[in-house]
Specification:
The protein is of the alpha+beta class and about 425 residues long. Helices cover about 35% and strands about 15% of the residues. The protein has two domains: about 170 residues, 3-Layer(aba) Sandwich (Creatine Amidinohydrolase, Chain A, domain 1); about 250 residues, Creatinase/methionine aminopeptidase superfamily (Creatine Amidinohydrolase, Alpha-Beta Complex), CATH 3.90.230. The protein contains 13 helices and 19 strands.
Length: about 425
């Protein structure tokens, strides 16, 4: 862990919001992620489950959180179980959290060793009428591997088949979407580190550089500045690769006259920023490249202004479509005939802009949130319109991270990161 731990006060507030939504006589259980094997004795780096982190601040494997506000004994209302350091662990891995450190990190007073879990859980489960379990119900989830949480749920239902089981995820989708000030500060820090990396890239891009060299330079700057690392798999897409939305090979040499689409950002304290910029390999945009770039930047600014409390996702997406259609008409990419033969389910602008304009952002790059409800103050969303033109061998996407505010304009957490094409050219040609 390179980041400075977030204050326990944040996790205390998060737990209060969660438990307020529980039914009476309810207990909720949250497990850490597994450490996943690769082969032989190799494993992937540990990545904490975002839900237990959101509610506790625990960033250590083999941890369990129990929330039971109606427990008969005070010591069972909030409990954390953590892995105890053994002499072997101390030598090979280093010490795990002590009980006092876990108290300081979480704000929970009742800390137990993991080996005590089975005994205590059986006792408290008998007091509960409902058990809230935490399955991954994200709209974009594709879970092919059984998790530590999944194994716990199967065991729990087998041992306590007569309990009523409820969903934690439905509560978390509502409360995680509204960010506390401490969370916005963590996102600001992630954006600040991302800016350092991007400005570094502007000084090194030139014809002949390889996409992976750009990725390496970004990784260096992110880690040097105490980021967790990349918030997601970096996309460094030069030339025609920019028309592959999830291009992650990053193995092409950047050539004179091409553009580089970089969708890459840092995470800090497990909070993800999300940035996309487009830069010219040669340091100057061509006339056509700048024309498309400026049209897209206008759409980004127009759609950012729409992010106000109360707007629905349907109304927002409708406005986005109208702004993008106008831009594509101005660029001579769409004609009136294209609009006439289009349908509501397949609007004409989708030929050049085939993904969404915004998604929730936070602990996950595609964070929790309900698109069935209007947008609210302190939601954090991306704004990322794109124009992809395979026939011209170029693709554009511009993306910033936006906080919806109660009064006034939305807050752009990436406002200081260069985006104006003239500024980008100027910075790339500084001597």
């Amino acid at each position: 862990m390179r980041y400075t731990p977030l204050p326990a006060s944040l996790f205390i507030k998060n737990r209060a919001k969660f438990t307020a939504a529980l039914l009476p006589e309810s207990m909720a259980v949250f497990n850490s992620n597994d450490i996943y094997p690769i082969s032989a004795d190799s494993t992937l780096p540990f990545a904490q489950h975002r839900d237990i982190y959101y509610l506790s601040g625990l960033d250590q494997e083999a941890s369990i959180l129990i929330l039971f506000p109606d427990a008969q004994q005070k010591e069972f209302k909030e409990m954390v179980f953590v892995k105890k350091t053994s002499p072997l662990i101390a030598v090979w891995e280093g010490a795990k959290l002590s009980k006092e450190e876990a108290r300081e990190r979480t704000g929970i007073q009742n800390i137990y060793w993991l080996e005590e879990f089975d005994t205590i859980f059986k006792e408290v489960a008998r007091q509960a009428k409902h058990i809230y379990i935490n399955q991954n119900e994200h709209s974009r989830a594709s879970t092919l591997t059984q998790t530590r949480e999944d194994r716990f749920i199967l065991r729990c239902k087998k041992e306590f088949p007569n309990h009523s089981y409820k969903q934690s995820n439905s509560i978390l989708h509502k409360i995680r979407a509204i960010k506390e000030p401490e969370e916005i500060e963590a996102l600001k820090q992630a954006c600040a580190i991302t800016e350092i990396g991007f400005r570094r890239i502007l000084s090194i891009v030139q014809p002949g550089i390889w996409e992976y060299e750009i990725e390496a330079a970004l990784s260096y700057e992110f880690i040097k500045n105490r980021a967790d690392g990349f918030a997601y798999s970096p996309i460094i897409a030069s030339g025609e690769n920019a028309n592959i939305l999830h291009y992650v090979l990053n193995n092409k040499q950047c050539k004179t006259g091409e553009l580089i689409l970089m969708d890459v950002a840092a995470a800090y304290a497990r909070y993800s920023s999300d940035l996309t910029r487009v830069v010219p390999v040669s340091g100057r945009f061509t006339k056509r490249q700048k024309q498309v770039y400026k049209a897209l930047l206008k759409v980004k600014d127009q759609t950012t202004a729409l992010l106000q409390p109360g707007i629905t996702w349907d109304d927002y997406n409708k406005e986005v479509g109208e702004y993008m259609t106008a831009a594509l008409m101005d660029l001579k990419l769409l004609t009136k005939y294209d609009l006439q033969i289009a349908s509501p389910k397949a609007p004409a602008f989708r030929k050049y802009f085939m993904h969404g304009n915004s998604h929730f952002l936070g602990l996950d790059t595609h964070d929790y949130g309900l698109r069935s409800e209007p947008m609210q103050e302190n939601m954090v969303l991306t704004v990322e319109p794109g124009i992809y033109i395979p026939e011209e061998k170029m693709g554009f996407r511009l993306e910033d991270d936006i906080v919806i505010q109660k009064n006034g304009a939305p807050l752009n957490l990436m406002a200081s990161i260069p985006i104006n094409p003239d500024e980008i050219e100027s910075l790339m040609n500084e001597k």
